Amino acid sequence: MTKKEIEQKTFTYFHSGFNCAESILKTFVELYSKEPYPGVAKFASGFGGGMGGSHCETCGALTGGIIALGWLFGRKDPGDDKQKVYSLSADFRNQFLKKFSSTNCQKILDMMEKQDIKLDCKKLTADTAGILYEILQKENVSSK
Predict the structure, then answer these.
(1) Among 108, 62, 57, residue whose Cα is nearest residue 88
(2) What are the tens digits of pLDDT across the range 27-67?
(3) Where are the domains of the chain?
(4) Is 43 helix (H, G, I), strand (E, B) or coil?
(5) 50: helix, strand or coil
(6) Which of 2, 71, 133, 134 is most open to solvent, judged by the fewest CB atoms within 10 Å of its CB?
(7) 3-class SS at 36?
(8) Is the distance from CB of 1 to CB of 9 less than 8 angstroms?
(9) 104 has which bridge partners?
């Protein structure tokens, strides 16, 4: 899939009713997992809308992407190396912050036009998927 297709798929999931975090996670697990995980979105459900819909914490698109990175590079055992997932997560967060000027859901919402917030959130989530896709491309992570 291309970056544009990843962004569109993520946007479509969000538009269909999944939240920002669920949409990102679902897209990337479907793209990169060797096995089907139809219920994977539930792992990110509580992170949507800045943690539980509160808009008070980290943007759900960012947290959904970090969950996806954990899915791909996270540890299975306490002694496993965590530097790869930490490094990629930090890079992802830094690129997100550079593009959107904040990682806080409410601050990002405050920068959006009031009449277009729902559409703008969907676009931001799609753009965030594009950022994550580019990071994975640089790492030569191949999709299934």
Answers:
(1) 62
(2) 999 999 888 788 999 999 999 999 999 999 999 999 999 99
(3) 3-138
(4) helix
(5) coil
(6) 2
(7) coil
(8) yes
(9) 58
